[in-house]
Amino acid sequence: MRLIIFLLPVLGMLGACTPTGTETSKAPDPPKMVQKEVGADTTLAERGIDAEARRENAIRIMWYRQPATQGVVRYKIYRSQDADGLANYRFIGQQEAENSEDTTFVDLDSLSIFTKYFYFITAVNEEGKESLPSDTVWYNLLPKATPGFPKGQVFKPDSLGFTFNVPSDAFPNGYIFRIERLIGANFRELVYLYMENPLQGGFGQTQYTYTMNNKELQIFEDDIEYRWRIDLLAGDPLHNGSESDWATFSIDWGN
Predict the structure, then answer these.
(1) What SUPFAM superfamilies would the database entry show (predicted)?
(2) What tens digit of pLDDT does each residue of 12-52 get?
């Protein structure tokens, strides 16, 4: 009788140490955003938050991929026009992990110019557990320039003027003129870049032309497709700007 009374508490203690169900994982660590650095606009990758070269208003954000040990299956993106307070942020989209663009997201959701947009992201694991918010990034879109000439094929030019229009309400400090070579569907090469800051021209001027001379044009190969765009600059280049839509062209050297 004494033996039975003595063993019952022991059995109870052993039972308390035995798991009653499957252990669950903890939420992933908060992701980390890619902060834009000085000079990023003059590189091919253009890392960090930035305007996106599209016809509609667009902002692209970037973050660092979480380690595989975190078990992340997707990232959720939140946006606000007020930097303070989680209650002011709303969910605007998500990006599945392990796809070709799992560390970038392009916001196309009714963006306005001259408006600050703040972003953070969270990571979600297989069990649906969501991390705490990442650090915050923000951007303010300016009106876009519009590429004019050239578009399409140009025949044996001695020089070539790239003409673009700037909205009258943009008032940029300067611009970046960029040309890329298209190499297949997923690759590109930065072949020419010019930055003018401060902007040369009269107050209220809306049409500009950047001219490449014949020697400069020799970088272009015969009948190869290139694309060009104009980025407008104003104020803090880390948080303000716009990118025009792309215009494509090629040169027929008559070879």
Answers:
(1) Fibronectin type III (SSF49265)
(2) 333 333 334 444 679 999 999 999 999 999 999 999 999 99
Report whether 50 contacts 106 (CB < 8 A): no
d(CA 60, CA 95): 13
In this structure, are residues 249 and 151 in contact, taking their beta carbons and an 8 Å threshold?
yes
Distances (CA, A) of 65 to 41, 44, 69, 103: 22, 20, 11, 6
Residues with Cβ within 8 Å of 86's Cβ and at least 6 positions away in sequence, in order, are 133
Return phi, psi of residue 102, to 5°.
-80, 0
Q: Where are the beta strands (DSSP E) in the chain?
A: 50-51, 59-62, 72-80, 90-96, 104-107, 116-125, 137-141, 146-147, 152-155, 160-165, 174-183, 187-196, 207-212, 226-233, 240-243, 247-252
Asked if residue 204 has pLDDT above 80, the reply is no
Pairing of strands 152-155, 247-252: parallel
The dihedral sign for the CA sequence 180, 251, 150, 198: positive
Amino acid (one-letter) located at 29 = D
CA 167 to CA 114: how far, in whole Å? 13
SS3 label, residue 137 = strand
Residues with Cβ within 8 Å of 19's Cβ and at least 6 positions away in sequence, in order, are none
H or E stretch including 5? helix 2-17
**Rounded distance between C-alpha atoms, residue 67 and residue 131, angstroms:** 14
What are the tens digits of pLDDT across the range 60-96?
999 999 888 889 999 999 999 987 766 789 999 999 9
Domains and CATH numbers, the chain: 40-141 (2.60.40.10), 146-252 (2.60.40.10)
Separation CA 231–CA 174 (nearest Å): 9
